Amino acid sequence: MNIAIVGAGKGGLSAIKCFNNIKDINISIVVDKNANAPGIVLAKKLGIPFSHSIDDINCNNLDIMIEATGNKEFSDFLKNRFGTMCSILDSKSTLLMMTLVERDLNTLEKINNQISIIHNTANIVEDQLHEIISSIDKIHTVSDNLLETTKVSSQYIKESDNIIQSVNRIAQQTKILGINASIEAARAGQQGKGFAVVANEVQNLSKYTENFAGEIKTILFKLSEEIKKIDKEVHGLDSFSQIQVDASSKVSSAVDTLVKACEENNKN
């Protein structure tokens, strides 16, 4: 259907906005003597033919002419000139149509606002989901680090256990040597001075024991450091979990905003 809009003021502007979005309706021309009329400006922007004179209206393929000026005398003039060539909506019909158009435009605006809100909400949801996915990946990394740290700690514990066993063996040997040295010294009397060698060995073994004790201390220190690392990683895990909580909160807030906006538009 081909239509012509005569009058590019508020009514004509509304008509252009409405009919331009309808697939089966073609706006053949918009006419207004005011070159700066809002409808003329919009027609230029949309690529719709426009003119400042009704003489440029071609009625050969025109179905309906919409008189959007609201002027009864001008409406009668259009009927007298073009009434036999196409259907003409007079001022009253145009006013009724413009009222309906304005209502439809308001409805469209509300729908567009809702779509915009939905679009923004979708973007927020998508961004927050990316945050959640990213934090989950980090949590997996932390878990792997925890497993590796635990493995290292277990190895240190194993090494310290081996050393402790060695210390126990040395302690047993030292004890036995001490007992034997005491027995032999008692038997030898003055000759017991020869057991000074045994005493030296016992002292050496004591030194070895001290060295092993030092190694145990070092290993336990390393174990303590690894435990600190575990504690740090656990705190990091808590932080990543908080990111998930915050992201979920933002998503929930965005959805609430969407629901409230829809409710407000429905009320209006």
Automatic annotation (TrEMBL):
Domain Methyl-accepting transducer: 101-268
A biological process term (GO) from this entry: chemotaxis
GO cellular component: plasma membrane
Superkingdom per UniProt: Bacteria
Transmembrane segments: none
Keyword rRNA-binding listed: no
Molecular function terms, GO-annotated: transmembrane signaling receptor activity
Cited InterPro entries: Chemotax_Me-accpt_rcpt, MCP_chemotaxis, MCPsignal_dom, NAD(P)-bd_dom_sf
UniProt keyword annotations, A-Z: Chemotaxis, Transducer
Family: Belongs to the methyl-accepting chemotaxis (MCP) protein family.
UniProt name for this protein: Methyl-accepting chemotaxis protein (MCP) signalling domain-containing protein
Source species: Paramaledivibacter caminithermalis (strain DSM 15212 / CIP 107654 / DViRD3) (Clostridium caminithermale)
